[in-house]
Amino acid sequence: MSHPPGRGDVLPDRNARRHVRRVPPRSVLPNRYPSRAGRPARSAVLARSARPVRPVRPVQSAQHSRPPDPGGRRYRCEQVWRKLREWQRRYLAAEIAGTLTAILAAMSTFARTHSLAAAALAASVGETVGFYVVILRATVPPLYRQHHGHGGVRRLWLTGRSVATEAVDYALAECADTLLVRPGMVYLASTWFASHLAWGFLVGKLMADVGFYGVVIPTYELRKRLTA
Predict the structure, then answer these.
(1) Which residue, 83, 135, 161, 228, has fewest beta-carbon neighbours within 10 Å?
(2) How many domains would you assign to the chain?
(3) Is 218 part of any domain?
(4) Tens digit of each residue's pLDDT (9 = 90 or more) over 143-167
C-alpha cells in the first residue's frame, strides 16, 4: 500500500518530460564544426577514405617495351627497310657520280670515233672511275680518323689495311664487270636505242648494275658478319 508522502520526499513533476530536449546520437549529427588546426572532422576523413581508389596504370617506356617478334611480318618489313636505307647511304651517291661520268664518257667517245664498242668501253671505264672516287672519298677519311691514337707511319698502315678490307667487297664483282659484263650490256642496249644513244647507255648501265650489286651486297653483308 502506498503511504502518504512525508515532509522530506520529492514529488515527481508530471510536466518534466515535456521540457527535456532529446539529443540524437553523434553519428546522426551533421558535420558542422571542423576539428582544430584546419583539419576536417573525423567523419569527413572516414567518408573520403571509403571512396574507391582508381588503379594507376604504369607508364610503359620505350626502353622497357616488349621487343618485336622476330617472326612477325612488321619486324621483317622494318628489317628490309633498314637494310635498304643502309645500302642507299653507302652506294647512292657513288652511283649518281658513276652514271654521270659513264654517259659523258660514252657520248664524247662516240662523237669522236662513231663506234658503239669504243663508246661502251669508255662508259664502263668512266663509270668505274666516278664510282670509286666517291667511294674512296666516303671511306678513307673515317678510317683514317679511326686510328688517330697511333703514330704517322703506323696510322697510314692501319688505314691502308682497313681500306683493303673494304675493297674485298668489290674485288670479286670487278673481275668481270668493268672489262666484260658492263661494256657488253652497254653495247647491246645502245644497239636497241640506235636513235637515242644516251638512253641506250643508261639502260645498259642499269642492266649491268643488277649483276654488279648481286655480288657486291652479299659480299658486304658476309664480311660484316665475319668481322662482327
Answers:
(1) 228
(2) 1
(3) yes
(4) 888 888 787 888 899 999 999 988 9
Could you read off the pLDDT of 171-198 as tens digits, one per residue? 888 888 888 899 999 999 988 887 788 8
The three-state (H, E, C) secondary structure of the chain, written as one string: CCCCCCCCCCCCCCCCHHHCCCCCCHHHCCCCCCCHHHCCCHHHHHHHHCCCCCCCCCCCCCCCCCCCCCCCHHHHHHHHHHHHHHHHHHHHHHHHHHHHHHHHHHHHHHHHHCCHHHHHHHHHHHHHHHHHHHHHHHHHHHHHHHCCCCCHHHHHHHHHHHHHHHHHHHHHHHHHHHHHHHHHHHHHHHHHCCCCHHHHHHHHHHHHHHHHHHHHHHHHHHHHHHHC
pLDDT of the residue at 90:
92
In a domain, 91, yes or no: yes
Q: Is residue 147 part of a domain?
A: no
pTM above 0.70, yes or no: no
Mean pLDDT on 203-209? 92
Structural domain boundaries enclosing 89: 73-136+167-227
- pLDDT at 123 (0 to 100): 92
Q: Which distant-in-sequence residues (6+ apart) come within 8 Å of 178 by Cβ? A: 124, 125, 128
- 44: in domain: no
How far is residue 202's CA from residue 128's CA, in Å, rounded to a whole number? Answer: 14
Average pLDDT score over the chain: 78
